């Protein structure tokens, strides 16, 4: 996404090509600002409350946008707004390729969303907030979490805001036992690697969104939650060896670093790795 003038905006952007998503934070100074004309589906999230007047292509009355406001942006459309004070936005761009499996599941030929300048949607706000926080954390939660969030976001957008009514696809049951076994074997064999949702989808022959639903029906967990539990179990087992430090255990269990291990371990087990190890070894 390109801005008119670097003096008007400051943008901090991270892109994950495999997940087909670009996540940005944009600081906008007071004065006129031209929105980019994007050919992809994009969302804007207000991070600082503001009031703006649309100047071009047609003048409109001021609009107050509170923190947490979501905009589903118009595609291939550029507008000029005037801001009375500096503000900030989160911006998430989703590549059209990301929607292909979702469209197939919903029986829609192409993605076309209804657009909104001011939208209150608690679910959409939660998803976009999580993605923005992941950008700030430089995607520490890993590729599988990012893939799962982006897939969930694209599916939600199509099912909730598609201009074409999606078909209601009834999915019963979970994965076939042999398919589930292949999926779990792949996870276990690649536990220390960066597992992508597309990798698991290829193992099952399903779309990513269908895989997430079916995997949860079979195991009671999402693929990401399942991977975290396996990594936590491996870490717990390795903690029996007094010679191993927590950093080595973290990396050997598939976590990004010791901090990542500590955060997830406490969430899953209920205590810190250090406390668990002390209780384990006496």
TrEMBL record:
Query: Where does the record place the HTH araC/xylS-type domain?
Result: 181-279
- What InterPro entries has UniProt attached to this entry? AraC_XylS_family_regulators, Homeodomain-like_sf, HTH_AraC, Tscrpt_reg_AraC-type_HTH
Q: Which GO terms describe its molecular function?
A: DNA-binding transcription factor activity; sequence-specific DNA binding
Supply the Pfam families for this chain.
HTH_18
> What are the record keywords, sorted?
DNA-binding, Transcription, Transcription regulation
Protein name per Swiss-Prot or TrEMBL: Transcriptional regulator, AraC family
Q: Which organism is it from?
A: Granulicella mallensis (strain ATCC BAA-1857 / DSM 23137 / MP5ACTX8)
